[in-house]
Specification:
The chain is α/β, with parallel strands linked by helices. It has helices at residues 24-38, 80-87, 116-127, 145-154, 157-161, 180-183, 207-212, 217-224, 259-262, 278-288, 320-327, 336-343, 348-359, 361-367, 376-384, 393-399, 440-448, 469-477, 512-521, and strands at residues 14-19, 43-47, 62-68, 100-107, 131-132, 137-140, 184-189, 226-235, 248-254, 269-272, 298-303, 318-319, 406-409, 420-426, 483-489.
């Protein structure tokens, strides 16, 4: 490692590494790369899962590490190997000698070990001889983490790394998410029946290859997730009123044919991919110039250049219905990259509005205000309400925020109920339970700032209450016989093996893990 470290500190590329579980750290990495390229610096975004330790100092330059946390301060899946190597006492202390670095952690102060992954990485890099050029930044997802990140970057990041980074001599390749027009062709094909060989998901044998070619860390979940069949959905409340949030469901999945799920332990975490409400999908179709019957047409992306690796946003071919229901987060506002890409396919008025929106921090704050909770439909409908433009479907599918899997603590034990996995889910409502605020005032302000056409406003009234997407889907829409995309994650929460009295307090995951523990304790083999 000492020999490899000879390049550390030399002029080279700005390498932006990310460790991300839900895609937020990856999104920040791309935003930082955009700004670096705009400043004329040579920069790239790198998934920590694809990096070997010896490559960290190869070629000089400076490195920044954007690291999220999962669980209670644990590293995200794609940074586990890096974190293990960094923390290993056997790793030579001069492995990263002279490497200029900076770290920004993405955490949540409601957890005990706030930003532990970022804190440990910052210390570990220094221990191995790397040279810190900017103080550790810590973002709080319980507040405005985007503002935390912008503040950290604005505290001197580019000034700190500039002495170690090359200036670009010419055109720099665009980031991956901007290459749709250059590298991929989008096709919306006629509907096909299952008998004709239509597949809704990629074959299992292709999953590992496809996950290596996924456009982002969230897309990797789509390729690696298993399928679980719904065996039972039972309402547990005596007087359920789901319209006001009073619903709790007991859900059983048949996982007997899936080793990746059936080997779970009590209190492990099941990550589920929810589906959007079909009514939200139907609202969007006219903006593409489509009708309900088009949902059965097939979606696919193809590389323009023969032999090129195809970076897939989700498994294709699939039906348009599946793409919009499952893989697109329709409840999130458009991102900066999505806005920039979509504007190139719009007319002058809409394009001008987006350009002004992207240049105006106050307008972007209005669009991203979590209390307002703009949806994809609400923004695009308001933008296009005064013209005849249509959204480009291929660009939308590629750049719409990806639907994130939701974590639930497993409420059963594979020892007590082999082949079956149980969840206990209560319908979650957002905020204080009151009706969401109207967008009329925000839309009027955006129009006044030129970020929406004059007089534009979302035309569809909002629901009286805002419910969690996944809990509502599980409690009110899921039916036996359906299947879900899921993945099991191990937990450190375990039942003691000692024969001692146990007090169970459901302060975090509720009663779910204790239901699993109690079923294990009730087994004959567990009796003294």
């Amino acid at each position: 490692c000492a020999e490899v470290a000879r390049d550390a500190g030399a002029i080279g590329e700005l390498r932006i590494y990310f460790g991300s579980q839900t895609g937020k750290a990856e999104s920040f990495a791309h935003d930082l790369c955009h700004e670096a390229l705009g400043r004329g610096l040579v920069a790239s975004v790198i998934d920590l899962e694809s990096v070997s330790p010896s490559a960290l100092v190869d070629g000089g330059g400076a490195s920044v590490f954007l690291l999220s946390n999962t669980g209670d301060g644990d590293p995200p899946d794609n940074a586990v190997s890096f974190h293990r190597w960094l923390s290993d006492p056997a790793t030579p202390v001069d492995s990263l000698r002279g490497l200029p670095f900076a770290v920004f952690g993405l955490g949540d102060r409601t957890y005990v070990h706030f930003n532990r992954t970022g804190v440990q990485a910052d210390a570990g890099l220094e221990r191995l001889g790397a040279r810190r050029v900017l103080a550790l930044g810590l973002g709080d997802d319980g507040g405005d983490i985007g503002a935390d990140f912008r503040s950290w970057v604005g505290s001197g990041f580019f000034e700190a790394v500039a002495p170690f980074v090359k200036k670009s001599a010419g055109v720099v390749a665009a980031p991956l998410h901007e290459t749709l027009g250059a590298d991929l062709d989008f096709e919306l094909l006629p509907a096909r029946s299952d008998a004709e060989g239509c597949r809704e998901e990629i074959g299992v044998e292709d999953a590992e290859k496809a996950s290596a070619e996924a456009t982002d860390v969230v897309a990797k979940f789509y390729f690696k997730a298993s399928r679980a069949r719904v065996a039972l959905v039972r309402e547990l409340r005596q007087r359920p009123r789901p319209d006001v949030g009073d619903s709790t469901a007991h859900v059983e999945f048949d996982v007997s044919g899936c080793p990746a799920l059936s080997s779970y332990a009590a209190a492990d975490t099941l990550e589920l991919l929810p589906e959007n409400d079909i009514h939200e999908v139907l609202q969007l179709l006219p903006l593409f110039g489509l009708v309900e019957g088009d949902l059965d047409r097939m979606v696919t992306f193809r590389p323009r250049a023969p032999g090129r690796t195809m970076w897939r946003p989700f498994p294709t071919p699939c039906r348009l219905r599946v793409a919009l229901l499952r893989y697109c987060d329709l409840r999130r506002a458009p991102t900066r990259r999505m806005l920039a890409a979509m504007s190139s396919r719009l007319g002058d008025e809409a394009k001008g509005c987006i350009e002004r929106l992207l240049k105006d921090p106050a307008s972007m704050r209005l669009l991203n205000d979590e209390s307002l909770a703009w949806t994809q439909y609400e923004f695009w409908q308001a933008l296009l309400s005064t013209g005849s433009d249509r959204l480009d479907l291929g660009t939308f599918l590629l750049l719409c925020p990806r639907q994130l899997p939701r974590p639930y603590t497993i409420a059963s034990s594979s020892s007590a109920t082999p082949g079956f996995l149980h969840l206990c889910v209560s319908l979650a409502s957002r905020g204080d339970g009151r009706a969401p605020p109207s967008l009329d005032v925000a839309a009027a302000e955006l129009a006044a700032r030129g970020a929406l056409p004059a007089g534009a406003a979302p035309k569809v009234p909002r629901d009286a209450l805002r419910f969690g997407l996944c809990s509502r889907w599980l409690c009110t829409h899921l039916r036996p016989g359906q299947s879900v995309m899921a993945r099991c994650r191990p937990s450190s929460f375990r039942l003691t093996k000692d024969d001692v009295p146990i007090v169970m307090v459901g302060a975090g995951a509720g009663i779910a893990p204790f239901r699993g523990f109690l079923s294990e304790l009730a087994m004959p083999s567990a009796q003294p």
